[in-house]
Amino acid sequence: MEGSSLQILHGKLLKLGFNKNTFLGNCYLDLYSKFGTKIDAFKVFDEIPYKNVVSWNIWLKVLVQSGDVHCARQLFDEMPERDVVSWNSMISGYASYGLFENALGVFLEMQKYGIRPSGYTYSILVSYVEFAFHGKEIHGNMLRNGVDLSNVVVGNSLIDMYGKLGIVDYATGVFLAMETVDVISWNSLISSCCKSGYEDTALSYFSLMRACKYSPDEFTMSSVLIGCSNLRSLEKGKQILCLCVKMGFLCNTIVSSAAIDLFSNCNRIEDSARIFKDSNIWDTALCNSMLSSYALNSLEENALRLFVLTLRKNIRPTEFTLSCILSCTQPSLWIWGFKLILWASNMYCKYGLIDSATNIFNDLLTRDLISWNTMIFGLAINGEPTKSLNLYYELLELSGQPDRITLTALLLACSYGGFVDEGRSIFSLMEEEYGITPGIEHYTCVVGMMTRAGKLKEAGDILQNMPHEPNSEMWESILLACDIYGDLKATEKVAGKIMELTPESSLPYLVLAQVYESRGRWESLVRVRKEMKERIENKVASYSWISVRSSVIMYQANQILSCGSKDIGIYSTLRLLTEDTWDRGLCQSVATGSNSC
């Protein structure tokens, strides 16, 4: 469900007065938690006059999913009633953000309040355990609470947990204590042995598994191949590989990757390349295995060529990919690899994979200002403003000199983190401290910082006194702030300014439509949508075209025009007429308050 459709339904709910109903309010709160924004969800939560535990749980889930664990804990402590779902949400929130000690603390606190942990509670904890003593503590707690450890699902999760922690004897003990096992149980045990350096034991369990008439799957075969690879046992690996071919598993990329690693570790790089070529699949796992094989066999140039090919195939590099490239030792190739890695680090920041970008940055032997700027900016836009500022101070300690981009990233970090005083200080000292005259990009960050902090008057003063003409982005930040603080006149005024500066922008129309809808001003809502359709959707757009056999298909905004194919032309016309009819019917139903479109 789209956000706009949800808001229209919510508007009807408000008009009919059903928003006071707790059950319906909870239903809409749950929908907003999945398809809306945090602000929308809070408005619905605030509208429910008689909140029950379900209402509080859904709002708690919204806070956890948005990453605001601190506010989630405050809400959790203030909840008038808490059930096992409330406790599980808080445990899951802490664990998913790497705060396992806090998660374990909530788990222990939960039992002090007499709340019996559910199976889901244990599955959360078992999935995120990082230390052996924590795993054993949770296992003991399960025994004390009478959890049925002979259950296949529970037993498998414990085997997997102990396997990840490298405690093979405990994993084996759980396996032997289970009344019934399945293929997943065998897989978990075999994988645990391989990961912990007991490859021979893993191969013995594999033989026992087949003797007990259990049919191995792709995961089983990949684990056993990894074991043979670690042992550098080519003969045993060939036998396993023949079985994979016989069972049709070699088409699985995980199995193929394990086979590539096997031949590479046994100095049979030509066989690795043959498997990679025969697979004819451009997959992250396969490409990483082949890259690693080239790097391990001192074929750096082949590795870099393959890396470039993966980028052309739109395969996103992982940390493992980049570590393989970093292992290239030839100086002439390392420079090329360094540039590719810097590009990849920037890409990771843009995609929100900030941990991967940080690992790349930390592994760099030489850091120029571009790499510092990339990381400072990446941390700022990915919800780590404090780390962004700390990295800047680290740069200064190393006698680094910031440039315009560095200071833009810093001001952005202050804006996102709400560090108004620090942002003001940096902005005021730019020219005096570093000889950099503030540009439009710096003013944009400062205006955004003020509006996010609710300081609309200060933001307006900056707009009036700045030496540059305010751009649309500044006005947009003020527009959104006006909307949040419910200033209708200011919203209409700023929206009009944006319409003058950027006639092609749909933001002012969308904000006005939302404001009018929330106030029940249906006529104004229809007028704004009509204006948006006339001024934006009907503007002449650029064309692109492709030739498919005897047909030429042209693309324009939301249309497809065809030359030489009647079927496509008819289809496009019908689709556009349908969309237009839907738009008109929707506006009419909103204006009249009817239930049909």
Description of the molecule:
The chain is mainly alpha-helical and about 600 residues long. Among the domains are: about 280-345 and about 355-365; about 545-595, no CATH class. About 75% of the residues lie in helices and about 5% in strands. It has 33 helices and 3 strands. The protein has helices at about 5-15, 20-35, 40-45, 55-65, 70-80, 85-95, 100-110, 120-130, 130-145, 150-165, 170-175, 185-195, 200-210, 220-230, 235-245, 255-265, 270-280, 285-295, 300-310, 320-325, 330-350, 355-365, 370-380, 385-395, 405-415, 420-435, 440-450, 455-465, 470-485, 490-500, 505-520, 520-535, 565-590, and strands at about 545-550, 550-555, 560-565. A 3-stranded antiparallel β-sheet has the order 1-2-3, with helices on one face. Strand 1 and strand 2 (about 550-555) form a beta hairpin.
